[in-house]
From TrEMBL:
Oligomer status and interactors: Homotetramer.
Record's protein name: Phosphoheptose isomerase
GO MF entry, a single one: isomerase activity
Enzyme kind, highest EC tier: isomerase
Annotated ranges, domain SIS: 35-197
Annotated EC: 5.3.1.28
UniProt family annotation: Belongs to the SIS family. GmhA subfamily.
UniProt miscellaneous comment: The reaction produces a racemic mixture of D-glycero-alpha-D-manno-heptose 7-phosphate and D-glycero-beta-D-manno-heptose 7-phosphate.
Localization per Swiss-Prot or TrEMBL: Cytoplasm
Length: 198
């Protein structure tokens, strides 16, 4: 019985990734272009999300500041999910809904990119961060699922929406992880060209 469940998880994930590739290749390429433009102009990428999406933020920032698959200079990316003193202070003194927006106010500048993760598209603190980013003339790359929720309605034509066509959180997160790797690879290639493994 358990083996059948495991196989079902693998099969559903593989089928979704194959189907999502056709839908998401264009938005992912647009996100790479947006991030490449920001980084090449001396700007940075801020990332926010909750739970598993918080881990995705940290994964993305680590790949840019450290490396993805090639040696290169560090690239400026910051996960807004890691400073527990800021998060608990803002959550306690103001509201949990402001834990990311306050940091975008503090660190975000015109030309920066906010990478916003929400599998439902309805995370209140991510929505608040997007509001501040748009007020500061930042661009937003939103990674969602389940139809995109309120985040999908908030984005402008200058932003990028990568919405996984599925309703199951685990499957959405699996595609988000693959998308992170596509973004990191695309940024490396855009900034530094192809390599011998292409």
């Amino acid at each position: 019985m358990i083996n059948q469940r495991i196989l079902a998880h693998f099969n559903e994930s593989a089928e979704l990734k194959t189907r999502a590739a056709e839908v998401l290749a264009g938005p992912i390429a647009s996100a790479v272009e947006l991030m490449f433009s920001a980084l090449s102009n001396g700007n940075k990428i801020l990332a926010c999300g909750n739970g598993g999406s918080a881990a995705d933020c940290q994964h993305f920032a680590a790949e840019l500041v450290g490396r993805f698959e090639r040696e290169r200079l560090p690239l400026p990316a910051l996960a807004l999910t890691t400073d527990t003193s800021i998060i608990t202070a803002v959550g306690n003194d103001y509201s949990y809904n402001e834990i990311f927006s306050k940091q975008v106010q503090a660190f975000g500048q015109a030309g920066d990119v906010l990478l916003a993760f929400s599998t439902s598209g309805n995370s209140a603190n991510v929505l608040a961060a997007i509001d501040v980013a748009l007020e500061r003339d930042m661009r937003v790359v939103a990674m969602t699922g389940k139809g995109g929720g309120a985040i999908g309605k908030k984005l402008t034509e200058a932003d990028v929406h990568i919405c996984v066509p599925h309703d199951r959180t685990a499957r959405i997160q699996e595609v988000h992880l693959l998308t992170i790797h596509c973004l990191c690879d695309g940024i490396d290639v855009a900034l530094f060209g192809g390599d011998a493994n292409d």
